[in-house]
Amino acid sequence: MRLETVFGLKGRTALVTGSSRGIGAAIAEGLAGAGAHIILHGTKAGGAAVVQQRITDAGGTAQELASDLSSPNAGRDLIKRAEAIAPIDILIINASAQINATLSDLKPADLAFQLAVNLGSTVDMLQTALPLMAARKWGRVVSIGSINQLRPKGVVTAYAATKAAQHNLIQSQARDFACDNVLLNTLAPGLIDTDRNAHRKDEDPEGWADYVRTLNWMGRAGQPEEMVGAAIFLSSQACSFMTGESIFLTGGY
Ligand SMILES: NC(=O)c1ccc[n+]([C@@H]2O[C@H](COP(=O)([O-])OP(=O)(O)OC[C@H]3O[C@@H](n4cnc5c(N)ncnc54)[C@H](OP(=O)(O)O)[C@@H]3O)[C@@H](O)[C@H]2O)c1
Questions:
Q1: Which of 28, 116, 169, 187 is the most buried (most CB within 10 A)?
Q2: Of the candidates 111, 137, 9, the residue with the CA atom closest to the CA atom of residue 61
Q3: 81 CB under 6 A from ligand 1?
Q4: Which tens digits make up the pLDDT trace of 31-61?
Q5: pTM across the whole model
Q6: 159 is an active site residue
Q7: Which residues, 6+ apart, have CB-to-CB distance to 98 below 8 Å?
Q8: Which domain holds residue 147?
Q9: Atom 43 of ligand 1 has which residue's CA nearest to it?
């Protein structure tokens, strides 16, 4: 079998939420490189312009939709707008909100916000996208989870809980849609060098270096590009007999 047949995404359209930067941008560029047409997404119109330009410069195709996924029904609307462009074969659920707080420090509004973006919009998107994928008898959903879904840290109590809930949702829907060739899996990163963590590095470079050295077996943060291979696998024909699972990319944990 040819590599292109197994991993190639030519003719597929992928919606990648939160792809204006970070892990989402890297995955969007990777899927475009494998041949998929990409629908980029961020909170602001034009926010993914740089990523879009990089994709077109590399010979791929991409366009952009903007929406704040904390709003009610935003996930549903986003899928509908994307489907108006092209049938969505691949959905990468990557955008998330992370507000660091221990349980005792957690504010109700911050809990509600993280639940809305991380869990509420995921429910909305799956409710809308899965029946359409099922009718077409092909679909791949990759939910970007976290090591915190398995080994939660107290400083991100609510965020970690939403990531565990998100994977639980992926598992139940994986079971329900498996016979329709709609396969759902979670790609769960460890610490990755993105804007989300940049302030910690900037504020205390030495403390950051110490933290990272002992955090995982490789003693370093991952790079967004290191998420791409697994994302292509989970989005492609290569992933034809795997659903409801998690792939952990953590540097050893
Ligand atoms: N970085 C890590 O160490 C790490 C570790 C484990 C898991 N993860 C997971 O990996 C995924 C990507 O993380 P990242 O570090 O690449 O994130 P990031 O650099 O903070 O980027 C977040 C992306 O999500 C979008 N976004 C944020 N809030 C949104 C909202 N309310 N509505 C719609 N879009 C929103 C942002 O859009 P704008 O550009 O418009 O703001 C941006 O595109 C997340 O699911 C995160 O939980 C990250």
A1: 28
A2: 9
A3: no
A4: 999 999 999 999 999 999 999 999 999 999 9
A5: 0.98
A6: yes
A7: 114, 156, 159, 196
A8: 3-249
A9: 18
